[in-house]
Records
---
Amino acid sequence: MKNLNGYYGQWGGAFIPEVLHETFRQLKDFYSKARKDPAFWQEYTDLMATYSCRPTPLTAADNLSRHFGGARIFIKREDLNHTGAHKANNVMGQGLLVKRMGKGRVIAETGAGQHGVATATMAAKFGFKCTIYMGEEDVMRQRPNVFWMEKLGAEVIPVTTGSKTLKDAINAAFRDWVTNMDNTHYCLGTACGPHPFPEMVTWFQSIIGLEAREQIERQFGRPPARVYACVGGGSNAMGVFQGFLDLPEVELVGVEAGGEGLASGRHAARLASRDGSPGVAQGYKTMFLQDDDGQMRTTHSVAAGLDYVGVSPILTDLWEQGRVRFASATDREVMAALELTMTNEGIIPALESSHAFVQAFKEAGDMSPDEAVIINMSGRGDKDIFTIANAFKDPSWQQFIINKGKEYEAER
Amino acid sequence: MKLSAEIAQASSGKDILLMTHIVLGYPSFETNKKVIAQMVANGVDLIEMQIPFSEPMADGPVIIKANQDSLLDGTRLADCLNFARQMTETHAIPFLFMTYYNILFKYGIEAFCQRAVEAGIQGFIVPDLPPEEGADYLKYARQYDLAPIQIFAPTSTPERMRFLAEAAGGFIYCVARRGVTGTQTTFNEEFNNYIAQCRASTDMPLAVGFGISNRDDVQALIGKADIAVIGSETIRLVDRQGAAAVGPFIAGLR
Ligand SMILES: Cc1ncc(COP(=O)(O)O)c(C=O)c1O
């Protein structure tokens, strides 16, 4: 991961409006000081150990391993992190940085709502004001997360421009930032955006990979043959991959949202499909899903957190170098993998995370029992009960909602 | 550079120049044509034509909506280039393209510069392309005599302004305040200090934009700026009262 001025190969950079130049200079400054200061990382890991649930376990999924009859499957349990996903790692790290910068307000974009909830949680703990931008479509898909953000004290602003999803929430957050940068930090939720965000988010998320490396060596005796992670913006994937980047024999596999299938055009596979092309948007250069004129296309996934037009420039570089292999999982495959994991292991992965399970399940049976694979379970699915119950078209759940609706109606 | 010469020429005998802004294809190219004719007939000195982009990160609500509606209506880059050529052939004032970097990048920077020159365009404003990221852009813009207009912001330090000015051509676009396009600016002491700093950092003409919407604003800029930029306000006006309202509005500004 060589970084020259925020470039990873030909990807990355900082394409920012002039008004933010100073803000980024200051951020880069605080970030590089923190990075060189061992006390900062110590403070971070202490916080994560006492406030969150770190280190999160590495669970041997023996029933699934038996089911596929091949590689031994291990699951890295980011679902057990506070707020239920890996997002908290990044948010808590940035929160400590905000304290050092002396700012009193944080803003964030959110797709699935997971990063929004994590940011609202951090803001509550550190005493920051908090505004979350969320595409109107995602507000509708992820109402329970909106409820929690508001209860945690954040203001949630539905974004009605563009496709009303994650990318539009990012634009809205930038517009807030160019107005309020003096007292506000933009807590970007994934390893995308202008330098130093990809590198900084990746650094905070490396805690996943550092733990996983140690755990697999202790529990299995050696490194895994393959590591699987879902890829939205790329933060959980970069997080776990960093534990194994220095081991060329460990194959790293990123799984993107195949939506209704790559051929349908309704997907969010920037690297695993042939539909992505180089572009510059949202402050950085990467492979985007865009048309011939450079206009961003609408993407689709059952998992809001993967429904995004761009991908981490660091991952694009690793893909180009052949270090990370990319695959995609369709909405339908995701539901099947989720069901299998629940019934065999009593573990409920988020829809985003289930994408990684799909690819691991496709490959595990062809591998040997001497080999291990790690699936990064980026988050838990039980908090997404509305989305998951809906995706399963569960009749008794639907009836419950109808009855609840009637009850509320009668109370009004 | 062609644009610098034209600005110098236009400036003689005027207290301040006017630059206006339109979003191509919004509400339609037909309306754009009428609006531009009204602007030119009423003394506008330069026009920036925004090629719509799906992610207009630095723009406020009025211009975002215009970008979005134009694209929904099916505006393509080729339409914008054709329209630009028609306008530069019809009207004698300088026309610029304002857009986001991906539009140039995706097309190929040199090819885009060639098309822009063929369309009679004299310069570019690209708000998400700082000089550090724009080596190729700056090279080709110079090669094709297109002015790579740079942006100053109230947050820019004096050193930064000098660095930006070195990369710039034509004039400097001074963003009047923090924030995005489309809301009012107040011309206070802080603003005056900022403009004085801009002036001290470059010999190039200074354009001031963001929140300039009426005669008072333009008057307030006389003696400080060389060019007053009217952005969102004409879009609002056309939305509410149609293209015909633009002429009297412009005529009343100076
Ligand atoms: C549980 C979960 N996994 C994965 C993602 C995708 O993000 P990233 O690719 O940055 O890990 C999200 C995003 O919201 C998420 O909530």
---
Amino acid sequence: MGAPAAQPTTGPAVLSEDGFARLLERLHNEGYEVLGPTVGDQAIVHGAVTEVDDLPRGWGDEQAPGHYRLVRRDDEAYFGFAVGPSSAKRTLFPARQPLWTAESRDDANFEIIETERPQRRFAFFGLRPCEVAAIAVQDRVLLHGVVPDEVYTANRSDVLLIAVECGAPAATCFCRSMGTGPGMESGADLILTELLDGDHRFLVRAGTRAGEELLEHLEHTEATEEDLAARREVLASAVARLERQLDTTDIHGLLMGNLDHPRWDAIAERCLACANCTLVCPTCFCTTVEDRTDLAGTWASRERRWDSCFSLEFTHTGPASVRNSTRSRYRQWLTHKLATWIDQFDTSGCVGCGRCITWCPVGIDLTEEVDVIRRTSEDKVAPWPMVPSPLQEG
Amino acid sequence: MTLGIGRPTVAVWKFASCDGCQLSLLSAEDELLAIAGEIEIAYFLEATREVKEGPYDISLVEGSITTPADAERIREVRSISTTLITIGACATAGGIQALRNFGDVETFRSLVYARPEYVDTLADSTAIAEHVPVDLELRGCPIETSQLVEVINAILAGRKPVTPTHSVCVECKLRGNLCVAVAHGTPCLGPVTQAGCNARCPAFDRGCYGCFGPAESPNSASLATWLEEEFEVDHPDLVRLFRSFNADAPAFRRESRRHEPEEVAT
Ligand code: SF4
Ligand code: SF4
Ligand code: SF4
Ligand code: SF4
Ligand code: SF4
């Protein structure tokens, strides 16, 4: 990502389908590992994209609470779908992260061997606006937090973000409520809009100097008033499709003032505490460490892996788990995502991508839960003090 | 160099079971020689006829309790074992043979055996922990060899073994499986089943069969309701789903009972 000073100066451009293919080529030539949407095992997942044919051209998705299906579209759109189960988190903050190993030299001495973190260049290709927003949230937590995370920092050091605005939101998307989509103005190196009216083409805006340089090397034309109108059209129809909403008005006060709301018990009746919501969430960052040893006692390793506030061990302190009930664990998840995250990081922990709704095996929908709490909240709840964020100090 | 308990003596015991879990130890080919070097196999009839007298540092117990004699024998095993680890669905939940707990053993006995009076059996197949205190349970039908090796490793090093009790879903997401329930509409017991298999079935596009038994906080009622309403799984199939290798584990037993025809579910 470019420094704030390196702002782009060129206006919106248009890439033909051919120019679009060249963009991918260029990324490869510059030594990037290009990761983007691919058709995996009956879902659109982040994978290696070497050429445009790797993209899910002509594929769409059908999403609902606890439901995902890959469907054929009746056009040749490259990006005619919303977010799938994977996200950039899997690459930047991997599910399993080796931290170090130790080898014994003799009976009394051992040596700690730090895990090498090879320098990699990632280009995320075809990120949706909510995904770019999610990376920004993880940046705040893992890059600009009090203690920058070593693994995330290494993976994030040479990353290019190529975003594509959304023309086909899913029924589970609610980015508009969170101010992250379906269109976007900044935050990525290049922002594309796929235009399917007339000639299949892409409107491209550079969001950084790095993006601008990429664009300069590609054959493109200046965007016409017609192209810009076509983009507005794409976004207007996307907005019209965004049926799900989350009212965020005083959400911190609402949730923290309702910690004893009976709705938490009702959710606990349905919630399986299976942790899928936290693991598919592109911003959740919780981990645990696992230590291993070999039989001979000459080798040990420590690995960090994704964990979740839904697992009982996660809050095991002293003799027992602090959050023993599913009620307390669901409440932790929801209040952290939407309320206490703001205390900690000055931003919501939710970007409205809807993954937690789609991939919950019993279709629990956080927007519905918040809505019920809002509608049935005792009018006067004790105000909850905002805790100053560590980010604000110095 | 061992940090834990030196070269522990290990005994392997069999109760009502298929021997599959004991064989898991023998099939740990890569580690077997190393294991044999670090522990003393004092009693393991499946592997060797050589028997050393107890007491034993570690007893691995396979199988469930189905006869009065075994109910007595497990007490003896407990009394001569410092650490007792149960291995597999039989030992931890009564196993597939606990299907008898839902039927009438007297009828089976009179129908199946020519001389039923020779068969001395209990009405139920029960987990070891219902008879004696158990220090650690390794789930699965059969157990994962890697989990057994991990436990032996941990004991030798004097550390806590990595044997998580959360759902199979966590393993699915760690290894990057696609969720077969959400994306394929395949009924899956993973959300209520304990991890340990590294989400093997979903990795092969199959729903989880629950062979590791209930996870730490299993909400099987909610999952069953969802499967009934959204996946149109009918009651007989819900009974079958929850009534297999871990039929008598409380969370699964309650759930299969709930979907039985009413006249039976008393
Ligand atoms: S939440 Fe918004 S930005 Fe994200 S995929 Fe859906 S429509 Fe696109
Ligand atoms: S909480 Fe749910 S909707 Fe919000 S960012 Fe996480 S997965 Fe997406
Ligand atoms: S919601 Fe839970 S898993 Fe996600 S970041 Fe917060 S505490 Fe961690
Ligand atoms: S809300 Fe859904 S995905 Fe999250 S723990 Fe509960 S059942 Fe699992
Ligand atoms: S496939 Fe089964 S175990 Fe895996 S995440 Fe889905 S419900 Fe859970």
